[in-house]
TrEMBL record, chains A, B:
Residues 19-60 form the HTH iclR-type domain. GO terms for biological process: regulation of DNA-templated transcription. PANTHER family: BIFUNCTIONAL UDP-N-ACETYLGLUCOSAMINE 2-EPIMERASE_N-ACETYLMANNOSAMINE KINASE (PTHR18964:SF149), ROK (REPRESSOR, ORF, KINASE) FAMILY (PTHR18964). Pfam families: HTH_IclR (PF09339), ROK (PF00480). It comes from the Bacteria. Belongs to the ROK (NagC/XylR) family. Gene3D superfamilies: 3.30.420.40, Winged helix-like DNA-binding domain superfamily/Winged helix DNA-binding domain. GO terms for molecular function: DNA binding. SUPFAM superfamilies: Actin-like ATPase domain (SSF53067), Winged helix' DNA-binding domain (SSF46785). InterPro entries: ATPase_NBD (IPR043129), ROK (IPR000600), Tscrpt_reg_IclR_N (IPR005471), WH-like_DNA-bd_sf (IPR036388), WH_DNA-bd_sf (IPR036390). It comes from Streptomyces dioscori. This is Transcriptional regulator.
Amino acid sequence: MATTGTDLSRMREMNMLSIVWALRGNPPSTVTELAGRAGLSRPAVDVLVQSLVTDGWAEVEEPGANSVVGRPARRFRFRADAGHVLGIDIGVHKILVMLSDLEGNLVHTLRRPVDPEAAPEARFAAVDRAIDKVLRSAGMAPADIWAVTVGVTGPVDASGRTTISTPLPGWLTADPVAHLAARFACPIQVENDCKLAAVAERWKGVASDADDIVFLLAGLRTGAGLILDGALRRGHGGAAGEIGALKAVRWLSAPAHLETCPGVPATAAPGEAAAWVFQAARDGDRQARTAVRRYTRDLAVGVAALVLALDPQVVVYGGGFSRSADVVLEPLRQELTKHCLRLPELRASTLGDESVALGAVRLALDEVDSRLLSDGLAAPTAPRRDTSRNDAN
Amino acid sequence: MATTGTDLSRMREMNMLSIVWALRGNPPSTVTELAGRAGLSRPAVDVLVQSLVTDGWAEVEEPGANSVVGRPARRFRFRADAGHVLGIDIGVHKILVMLSDLEGNLVHTLRRPVDPEAAPEARFAAVDRAIDKVLRSAGMAPADIWAVTVGVTGPVDASGRTTISTPLPGWLTADPVAHLAARFACPIQVENDCKLAAVAERWKGVASDADDIVFLLAGLRTGAGLILDGALRRGHGGAAGEIGALKAVRWLSAPAHLETCPGVPATAAPGEAAAWVFQAARDGDRQARTAVRRYTRDLAVGVAALVLALDPQVVVYGGGFSRSADVVLEPLRQELTKHCLRLPELRASTLGDESVALGAVRLALDEVDSRLLSDGLAAPTAPRRDTSRNDAN
DNA sequence: ATGAATTAGTAAACTGCTCAGCATTATCCA
DNA sequence: TGGATAATGCTGAGCAGTTTACTAATTCAT
């Protein structure tokens, strides 16, 4: 709690930022509205917003048709297109690149399938092509990007490496930060996919009202991401949420209950097998229902461990299996009731497989915001990454 | 991230607080030193500290023996005795009351044994007597107390009740806040004992350097308290850390391995039995070592679940058994190595059974600080509790 | 069409804070 | 006793935001 002294210039900077916050994410606003939102007087807001306009952070919209009485007000709009960020999901089967403006509006999205067996070099090459395509479609250069966040499977350490375990072949030696640094001078961040999905769920998903969230990435692999007190919980070594590694938690083998369910067509791929079982369970097939129940039972142990450890407000069921949440949530609730002291709300994700890239976008935007908070807002330009981070070879 | 606008008066308040922060916990300081610490100019600090003195928050120490050349500087000292807080541990076997000044110096400590079977009324009566005695010895009245925090066993909800489970007989219907409110008009807080002990370890204990801590309260009961990103993690319903409730985690039965160890003198009380086993294990007794290993194995599952879920920097082994940490920590480390992805540091608590009351003091001081931050610092007087909280009958 | 009502924009006066610089004061040391 | 040194006290300049009052632009009712 080291409060540090303030002077006038810092105060002006803070008030400037409070205007930006009040401007962003709202429809074009009048000075009076902004004054109310930011808790400042009208004249003060006037000069602040004036200088935001000259700096290029905001723009005026001259009054047009106006149905209220009185002199029509100019409306100011945050220039969301002053900068952009990239959110990238490097998955096992697909690569998803999202280009977003500073307000979080998605300007461009590109999905590309990728060979699950592809080596890191091939995967990076596919990522590069996807990025190129997105930038080209948007008419932008890498220098126009203010921050990049990448999501990968497996726990990620502070340098962006995945050193413990990952289903991506050869990824233990891959260094995404170094690879992207060759093209982007802006801050680059790598984060675990479950954590990013959790962030997305709180941003634009089903848990936007909650501050304490356990997010479950359920699919052929199972993982978890935690948001506590509104902030992403990374863990001291970046490995928070890896409860699946506990032997008593059978997350590794849980999906097998679905794949080995009697009656699954022999031709089905692993992911399709699970979908078939869920559908069959929905239709009342006894064996399928049993398989789902067994899957749920294994799943529940790990969820219960997280719930007991953290006592969250909401558990979000997301990932590839979340489309079948209707047949999973109720049995899961029953299992959790057995284990937990206090049952949190259970919700199904609606973001589907875009959640990871979306969370990456949000984290990149957060990075931009934190720069603004610490460095203040000069004219809008792409920030440069700390060179001190490059020594992480 | 709702930054709100600031004006001059707020700025002065913040600078005033930054002076208080710079003053507190330091030896009497000169204006120049304070200016450096607070990042303000010397004249500014001068008038601020002046008004702190007239308000009663600080006092001057006229220069005495001074070995440096030049005009001797006045030194200012935070008036830590301007207010006091109480930290109270209502345990199964004992009641511990600590009276602390605003700097966290313990002015008075009183420990009283209590019948483990005592009903809430009797326990409250004992608490009242202890408080009376402490206040009398310090020559204070209840009105001189600025905040009270109480530690009890079992998960505590927002109203201070323990509704789920507790080893204190009859406690499910007890309302410590209501009881204390009859005598104290200041803010009253009730918190779980493990959580308070965790706070104490980070404050004055063995984990003062860490921001992510799993604290283990090991004794005849086993519990955990979590500190994440430097803040106490309560959980949405106040039940964070209750991993012991999971069936796969055998925390309830774990201490039984010690009590049923062959060779324990039949006359020993439960607590003494464990101590005897630890001592025997230390002396090389095979059966005792086996019992300790079994105890540790059960303990480790729950710890591993917390470590995997949160990836903390440090695990602190505290509680009644922490005196025997020397025979527990090494086997515990070995067990954790089997379960965990990344092994955190393992440390033994040194605060003994004072940790709960000490954590209560820290939380009471935090309450005082947060009032200062939100309400600003008028003349130092005891704050009054929000009456809006009394409706929780 | 005209004036009242209403709201937005703008200018001036005022408050309160920080800061830079200089004069003053208290102490040590030769 | 007279420098040297370092802290204190004071004054004026500058700055940001608030308040107040006034002017400008628009709608609505008469």
